[in-house]
Design brief:
four-stranded parallel sheet, Helicase, Ruva Protein, domain 3, disordered N terminus, alpha/beta
Length: 218
């Protein structure tokens, strides 16, 4: 299929992505070259497009994803300071457990930590049962989306929490790695998803306490 016969919604919106890259290059001037920023924007779009079920607003999501990845890369390289601990939650699809954990830690952390989530094999959309269970406690996942796991977000993290993604995560020295055994909410009834949510809530609260409690004197 050539460009003339390709439906418009299947064409990569070059102009929109180039404009986004231009704006981000100004934001990261002195940190990354314009070429690096542009590569991140187009790679992020391509990665999300491979998995997203609905392509509406995909360029905006790709810009958000590229911005977060560039910030993570800058943090990992020491070009951008870390004001609070960085936590990364990983599961297979980034459609259930890692999304719930990230939302819960954001909620309880109130700016005391910064949270990211990703999936080793991201799904097309967030599990509707997960969205419903989180909405019951006042947390809206409507603006979230499954994201692929990239080395830059791992490199920026201080704590990496894995939930069933095996060895997909790159290992960097000087980081705290946790492996939580949490049931996958995929295909589960809402009652089970609520139980998973509450289990994650307890674990997240403990993690937050560990990260924000003052160190005891020796």
């Amino acid at each position: 299929m050539d460009r003339e016969t390709t439906p418009p919604d299947l064409l990569m919106p070059q102009a929109v992505l180039s404009r986004a890259a231009h704006n981000l290059a100004a934001k990261y001037a002195g940190v990354f070259s314009a070429q690096t920023v542009e590569r991140y924007v187009f790679e992020s779009y391509a990665s999300l497009r491979r998995t997203a079920r609905i392509h509406t607003h995909l360029t905006a999501l790709a810009t958000r994803f590229a911005t977060d990845r560039l910030t993570a890369l800058a943090q990992a390289q020491g070009a951008v300071p870390k004001d609070v601990p960085e936590v990364l939650f990983i599961c297979v699809h980034n459609a259930g457990r890692s999304q719930m954990a990230a939302a819960l830690l954001n909620h309880h952390g109130v700016g005391r930590v910064h949270v990211r989530s990703a999936g080793s094999a991201p799904a097309q959309e967030i599990n509707p049962q997960v969205i419903e269970a989180m909405a019951e406690i006042g947390l809206d996942l409507g603006e979230e989306y499954p994201k692929p796991l990239t080395d830059d977000v791992v490199a920026a993290a201080d704590v990496v929490v894995s939930m069933g993604c095996g060895d997909a995560c790159a290992v960097y020295p000087g980081k705290r790695y946790l492996d939580w055994t949490i049931e996958d909410p995929a295909g589960q009834p809402l009652e089970t998803v609520r139980t998973i949510r509450d289990d994650l809530d307890a674990r997240v609260r403990q993690l937050l306490a560990d990260l924000t409690s003052p160190s005891l004197p020796a």
